[in-house]
Amino acid sequence: MKRRDFVAGGTKGVFVGLAGLAGLGARPATPFVAATGRRADLVIRGGTIYDGTGGPPRTGDIAIDGDRITQIGRGLPAGATEIDARGMAVAPGFIDIHSHADLSLLVNPRAESRVRQGVTLEVVGQDGSSIGPWSDGVFELTRDRYRRDFDVEIDFRDVGGFLDRIDRERPAVSVASMVGHGTVRGFVVGGVDRPATEAELERMRAMVRDALGQGAVGLSTGLEYTPGSFATRDELVAVASELRGTVYPYASHMRNEDDRLLAALEEALHVGRVAGVAVQVSHLKAQGERNHWKAEAAFAAIEAAREGGVDVHFDRYPYVAYATGLSNLFPASARAGGTGRFLARLADPETGPALERACRDKIALLGSWDAVQISRIGGANAAARGRRLGELASELGEDPYALTVRLLREANGSVGMIGFGMSEENTERMLAHPLGMVCSDGGAYAPYGPLSRSSPHPRGYGSFPRVLGHYVRERRAMSLAAAVHKMSGLPARKLGLGDRGVLRAGAVADAVVFDPDRVGDRATFDEPHQYPEGVAHVVVGGVHTIRDEEQTGGMGGRAVRGGGAAGR
Predict the structure, then answer these.
(1) 340 falls within a domain
(2) Is the peptide bond before 92 cis (omega within 30 degrees of 0)?
(3) Please, are residues 172 and 555 in contact by the beta-carbon 8 Å criterion?
(4) Number of folded domains that form the chain
């Protein structure tokens, strides 16, 4: 495919008619402004500019002073530093609307696997789990672990404290955070499977208000995980109502993403509708071959809700496998009360057989034990990282279920897994849908140091370049302008960040320069610790962080705070 064809952007016409319905049609391109003659700190020269609005590209220059874009036009005066972007695409820095690069940014502030993708803003605090508010016990466990494993001092215990620390550390990427419903529920109710009392519910609501006042940009849920899974629908509505009057979304990892997907989606939409708040469906998927048909029904439900007045979007990473904990092969009820009780239930002759049946049914949904890959485990079983469960069990002469239980027991439940269960066709359609955004759902890693001690999902290294290379250039599932919009302007608008996600005078100077003919992911499930290619330059808050596909050591990240809780 020739560059001019790719730059113009092919499309299969998928869901094109929804652009008007969603209010997401291409906007007029950001107008150029005339040069003033002032010598800028940095000029990005002669690139094909995709401004993040979804409008058509233009060729021109971008001038940056400090942390702001000052001019966009042709023939701008020379800057103190220049980037030659001729023949390259220039886009706003990518916003990962669903990221798990939370505390890892303190372990390695260079954020290698993130910024090399062109990501300049991480939206963390996802799946119901945020950095605080923490009880004394959770704070002490986290502090002690990071001291022991990473020599990192944790000196905060809520969202505001974490964002303050980001401002002091100034990592390579900027950070915004949601507040996690599961974190709040764990603080107030604990890990028990019961409804919250009225007093507990009021306390949870107050904690969400506090987090919003500290700068949180939404409320996330992780309803397949404990303790969030124990919340009633009414509890979710009540807590989400604290977002009313703000632009911030209720972002939900729903209760189910396979056999009960449509019921779980209905609940998420119901919460948004009744609470009167925006909805972000996290990493939309239909797991298991027997559920692949539900993608179409999910699209219909989301579109109908939007027509009915719910400000709903979703996000998706560009892979057919997900990542979670190995314990998630078992029902959430089995995990109530913490790891100790979960492991005891597995060994109990009364409860163990039923849990084994549930686990084997989950494996049947995925297709086989080889659909499960171990991504994270330590100690004596560290060699299991990167191995498929079925193959490993055969090699060791163990039953796969017995091996699963043994690994969980010997690692005290701390085992990560990758599960292969989605279809390529659905993945492509979700990424191309006008209401869809691009996310990684991944953490920050590096091929060196402590962040290399796992076999992670490749999405942590390759999500955004994979969309640009595989789904735009090769598959032509969407235009390049549409893909950039899904990675920048659309998530910025969802979070009310008016000065990010766009290339225009006055906006924060976050930008990525990439080669349309080369950009792509290199990380694989077997060899995940590989940087992408074709992302030539990344500017974060005016700091030239990636130059010629190598990190400069410049750190331009900062905390990005929301405007606070709604007035009452």
Answers:
(1) yes
(2) no
(3) yes
(4) 1
